[in-house]
Amino acid sequence: MPNASCLCGQVKITAKEVKPDVSACHCQSCRGWGGGPFLAVQCGTKVQFEGQEHIKEYDSSEWAKRGFCQACGTHLYFYFKKAKAYNMPVGIFENLQDLAMAMQFYIDKKPDYYCFAQETVSMTEAEIMSYYASEL
């Protein structure tokens, strides 16, 4: 099973289902949170945390919250409240293989100063809001 941890090691994560598709979110919230696009993998609902007392959460929207290590600040997850599913930063995992960028969210909010070479499925803000309307 794929393992992840924060920088200081106080939070350790085991995710039983990590999909090999990497997504990039270009929304202002994600870019403000991490200083660039949020590169994530879908981990579903079967996620276990060791050191959960070190996790701080922030309600970032009506349908999701973000978790981070309160000791070192490492971003740990974007959690969909209704689905009870996690998207996690791909960079916190050890030795994930055979990954490919497959999706970009909020493509209409992506600034001009970066771009990805891969061709992906892309969704605009309006498409995202329509898609997640059932999650509210």
Class inferred from helices and paired strands: mainly beta
Percent in strands: 35-45%
Q: Can you tell me the CATH architecture?
A: Beta Complex
Q: Return the CATH class.
A: Mainly Beta
The ordered string of helix (H) and strand (E) elements is EEEHEEEEEEEEH
Q: Which of globular, elongated, flat, extended, rod-shaped describes the shape?
A: globular
How many domains would you count in the coordinates?
1
Q: Biggest sheet: strands, sense, closure?
A: 8 strands, mixed
Mean pLDDT: 94
| CATH topology description | Metal Binding Protein, Guanine Nucleotide Exchange Factor, Chain A
Helicity, in percent?
10-25%
Measured on Cα atoms, how large is the radius of gyration?
A: 15 Å
Low-confidence stretches: none
Q: Kindly, what is the distance between the CA atoms of the first and last residues, rounded to a whole number of angstroms?
A: 31 Å
Helical element count? 2
Strand segment count = 11
Strand order across the largest sheet: 6-7-8-9-4-3-10-11
